[in-house]
Amino acid sequence: MKLRVLGILSVLSVLLVIFGSTAILASVSRELTQELQIKRVAALNRFAQVALDAETAGESARLQTEMDRYSETYGEGVLIRLQEGTLHSGSLDADRPDVQAALARANLSLSDTALEPLQPFGAGSEVMSRSFGSASQVLGEVVLEVNLEPARQKLRERWLLVGLAAVALAAVLLLAAARVTGWVLRPVHRLNSAVTELEATGRTGQLPEEGPPELRELSRSFTAMARTVSSSLESQRQLIADTSHELRNPVGALRLRIDLLQLQLQTAAQQEAAAGVLTELEHVEDILEGVLRLAAAEHRASEDSAGSTTDGRPGGAPAPADPYPVLQEEAERVEPAARRAGASIHLGPAPEPALQVACNPAELAQMVAELVNNAVKYAPGARISVGAYRRGGTVTVEVSDDGPGLSAEERAAATRRFWRAPNPLGIRGNGLGMTIVDKLAGANGGRLRLSAASPHGLVARLEFPVAGPGQGAGSTGPEAADD
């Protein structure tokens, strides 16, 4: 947008300078032409008067002297045709076509004293002519050569001065256009950044009141609106978290009562009904637990986007951590559950040298646990591989399986709240695991990517920027295909 506005202002500034310079140059040309014309007409009239006196007295010596002196001084020729002959001085040739035409017009009592407007570049000279005599008789003609080169040189000098002034004025106008554009658009860019931040985090800082009055008022209005939206979102998030937390106590009490009730039930039908209630209660507990973890993840993501950290480190970056020990610990933890499901956990070799990622270790462990637990639950009997490798300036933590996998549409929807696969195989779940992983990954400056494994299965990758020196070095690890 800045380039478009600045481009329009620049074009208008250049056009303004061009039109102004053109008008000034045309005025200078007219001024110099008029000045030269006035001087030469005066000289022409004087020669006509002297020639008339010489014709009357029959003595042309004084006239010739005047003509020679003029030609020597100004470098311009003079030609005067009298009754008894023709006098000339300088290099003016009577046989030149323009001189012949000027004599013919003067002989008809037609004065030719106008000059064409001067141009800075050109060659040649012009002639001026008039007749002299009585009111009823033409006694002779005077033709004066006008050398235009000195006037052209003066015009070129004026053009140069005007050109330099035009360039300086254009530079000033362009600089002013850039300053005005920045002054006007700076609040717009800040407003756009604030809108993006509000959309991503639900909060934004106060916008400085800069720019034109309308934009300052817009900044004030947006700041007030953003505070209202942030307060509303925070209230909703806190309400969900508080409600989920408060429901855990009555749900726990309800579970205890159901356990006591089961001890008093006698028939198998009653026991089965109580078991069904207990199953649903456990599902409610899972949902409450998932909502609490999701609220914590969203709050963590919001803090990270706002530039704060949980450990007080500046710039929003957590302490560098080695992801491999986290993977090793989670793989060992889930291995018994995987054996019961008929699956196998395979931990990749430790990278050399050790990797460092800018990710909170506890949150990385939570993300890996969600991904591994999902693989165990939804890919029974599968081979589950866990590993970490580096590619360029990115460290990838990968959990893959050769189970049924997800379609492209399902992978795109997997991070939505409460989304579950259409065919969950009767497996319990709350549909919040992938959402939590996605939020925590974003809070740590990374991202979650889901892709298809070959020939079947699912690959979940957590990609984080490399922490510490040596960023951007060569890659280590498998070249897994992205979706």
How far from one another are the termini?
A: 34 Å
Please write the CATH class name of the largest domain: Alpha Beta
Strand order of the largest sheet: 5-6-7-9-8
SSE string, helices as H and strands as E? HHEEHEEHHHHEHEEHHEE
From the 3D coordinates, which CATH architecture of the largest domain would you assign? 2-Layer Sandwich
What number is the mean pLDDT?
81
Q: Looking at this structure, what is the CATH superfamily of the largest domain?
A: PAS domain
Which range best describes the helical content: under 10%, 10-25%, 25-40%, 40-55%, 55-70% or over 70%? Answer: 55-70%
CATH topology label of the largest domain: Beta-Lactamase
Q: What fraction of the residues are assigned to beta strands by DSSP? A: 5-15%
Given as residue ranges, the uncertain stretches (5+ residues, pLDDT < 50) are 308-315, 470-475, 479-483
Number of strands: 9
Taken together, the total number of domains comes to 3
| Number of continuous helical runs | 10
Structural class given helices, strands, pairing?
A: alpha+beta
Give the overall shape, derived from the CA principal axes: rod-shaped
Largest sheet: 5 strands, mixed
Radius of gyration: 48 Å
